[in-house]
Amino acid sequence: MKRTLYLKILLGYALLGIMGFVTVFTLTSRLTLNYIEKKTISSLYRESNLLAASYAANYYRGTMTLTDVKTQFEAIADYLGTEIWVIDRNGKILINSLPDSAPETVIEDFDISSFGTQYYQKGTFFGMFPEEMLSVFSPITINYKVRGYVLIHRSIADLTAYKDGLLNISYITLAIIFFCAFIVLVLFTFTVYLPIRKMTRAAKDYSEGNFDTSIDIHTNDEMGYLAASINYMAAELSSLEEDQRKFIANVSHDFRSPLTSIKGYIEAIMDGTIPHEAQDKYLNIILFETERLNKLTQSMLELNKFGVKGSMMDITEFDVNHTIKMVVQSFEGVCKQKKISFELILTGQTCFVSADMSKIQQVLYNLIDNAIKFSHFESSITVETTEKNDKVFISVKDSGIGIPKDSIKKIWERFYKTDLSRGKDKRGTGLGLAIVKEIISSHNENINVISTEGVGTEFIFTLPMAPKESGL
Ligand code: ATP
Ligand code: MG
Q1: C-alpha 433 to ligand 1 mean position (Å)
Q2: 425 lies in which domain range?
Q3: Ligand 1: residues whose CB is within 6 Å?
Q4: Of ligand 1's atoms, which has the minimum distance to the CA of residue 400?
Q5: How far apart are CA 265 and CA 462, in angstroms?
Q6: Over the stretch 35-87, which tens digit does the pLDDT of each residue have?
Q7: Phi first, then psi: what are they for 320, rounded to 5°?
Q8: Residue 369 needs a FRET pair 20 to 30 A away by CA distance; which of 198, 214, 285, 392 works?
Q9: Does residue 368 share a domain with residue 297?
Q10: Is residue 437 part of a domain?
Q11: Domain end: 304, 329, 346, which one?
């Protein structure tokens, strides 16, 4: 089906060729022959009239001898490529331009009225010729009396040969036209058909959701512009799809982590793992998580308002030390289970930064969540803040399984998990760090990782320090 257009054009081309040759072979051939015959008849008729009025009449008047007339006729017949006769009214051939012709031959069944109203005839002329001839006659009139006839015969085969010669020119012209059409076809193939085929293929890929295909046409014409437009459209569609996917993945991930933590604490409270006296503290953590979820929902609604691209940043000045403490606290339950301790090395009492607090909470949450997940039992995790120039460096360091060298670059990719971690954490989606990276990038800050397999991992990111006067 894909090649239908091209097949149609090829078929059209072949048809054009065949029709051209058939037309020349039949119609043009017949028309040409008719034309040649007509022309020959009229010129022979003029000639026969002239001969009838001159030599033949002179012969009848006795002013020229038979031999003289015959000699003249021989020369003229030779020149015209014809046979010239003079016959009397009864059909006796008096003069024949053929040098070795039998004298005084009588044409059997000769009847001048068989010519009808015409002055020419086609055929073997009363069986006198073995082949088809064109015979033109003019009466020889002396004193208003018809004394005989001048006849000029020309072979139709001669005319046909002449016509074939002319037709050869038509065939050559047709072949040249056909060749020119072929060049046009080749040009069409390269400039129109192949580009269209490329675009059709690409469009098919796009319809199947594969936007990686790009159309490789860079000509400076309509095809080139069309291809560039389609490529642009595909890129836009692709990024739209990518953004949507990213958005949904991020949102689900952000929802899952706090819900898991809330569920854990409620279960612990219900089954009495957390004693009655300590419940307040955990209820506070639950409240903290619920607030985060609430905020998340709100920012999602906000995000929805502004489209899927980019997210609204809510930059405020806040104490990142306090945020770290709150986030660390929310992991207390899990840490107790794994007997993991936290070491917080924070600069001063407070450390104010300018950033989107809920998003930085999310970053810390994801990094600490990873640190705990990939740490061994009874190990320690260090969270440290240091100030340098106008930046605050925040580091989350564990002494867990570490990240293999080949994977270091890939951990930021969405859904990527190292083989080491797969066994340890089956529930992880591999989205945490992608979100972290995106949040830090949207703050125009950096995040780095230093890790040694089997030794531990440290993530360090920067945040801009809040201006001193407003921070104090
Ligand atoms: P999720 O965060 O959705 O629960 P995840 O933790 O597996 O899943 P990421 O936080 O994006 O996903 O981390 C990606 C991968 O990077 C992890 O699966 C793990 O292989 C590796 N990784 C991240 N942090 C550490 C760490 N502290 N120690 C060792 N490996 C880590
Ligand atoms: Mg994670």
Answers
A1: 7
A2: 315-471
A3: 253, 366, 370-371, 374, 398, 400-403, 411, 416-418, 421, 425, 428-434, 457
A4: 28
A5: 32
A6: 999 999 999 999 999 999 999 999 989 999 988 999 999 999 999 999 999 99
A7: -70, -30
A8: 392
A9: no
A10: yes
A11: 304
